[in-house]
Specification:
Layout (H helix, E strand, L loop, with lengths): L2 H7 L9 H12 L4 H11 L3 H10 L11 E6 L2 H5 L2 H12 L5 E2 L5 E6 L11 E3 L2 E3 L7 H19 L1
Parallel strand pairs: 1-3
Antiparallel strand pairs: 1-4, 2-3, 4-5
């Protein structure tokens, strides 16, 4: 039995009203909503997959790709915007060769934008796995990423 099937068993006679809690449970357990999971949820809730995707794409909390080992959040709130967080985001996109909402091909990093990280006095701010980087300049992005790539390599080596 898959993780998705186990979650659906917790919602035996669920219908449309259970869609968001089911999606949240699946993403919390699996890390994202795969195509197979969406199809299984649609079948269980007697809804078309287009309805599942419509709801899931409306909310920013859901993702459709497996997350990377390290989550990068770029604050795009007002203070960060004024302090040029767009340039920091563009530098990250260039280095990682991905757009917000995507995971790098090596599976190490996922990139997302957020409305506010609550550190406005430190703008522009990025957060990697809960670690904040303050007053980030675009030219610092490569160094920051290399630090985390080294951590990821050490973690992978320790797991092997």
């Amino acid at each position: 039995m898959t993780v998705v099937d186990q979650i659906l068993r917790e919602h035996p006679r669920a219908r449309r009203e259970a869609l968001i809690p089911v999606l949240q449970d699946v993403q919390k357990s699996v890390g994202y909503l795969s195509e197979a999971a969406v199809m299984r949820i649609a079948d269980h809730l007697c809804l078309p997959t287009s309805k599942i995707y419509g709801v899931a794409t409306f909310y920013n909390q859901f993702r459709f790709q497996a997350p990377g080992r390290h989550q990068i959040q770029v604050c795009r709130g007002t203070a960060c915007h004024v302090k040029r967080s767009r340039a920091v985001l563009e530098a990250l996109q260039k280095e990682l060769k991905i757009n917000p909402g995507q995971t790098a091909g090596d599976g190490i990093f996922s990139l997302e934008t957020v409305a506010c990280l609550g550190a406005c006095g430190l703008a522009p701010v990025i957060c990697i796995d809960g670690e904040f980087y303050a007053q980030v300049k675009p030219q610092e992005v490569g160094r920051i990423l290399r630090t985390h790539q080294k951590k990821a390599a050490a973690e992978a080596k320790a797991e092997a």
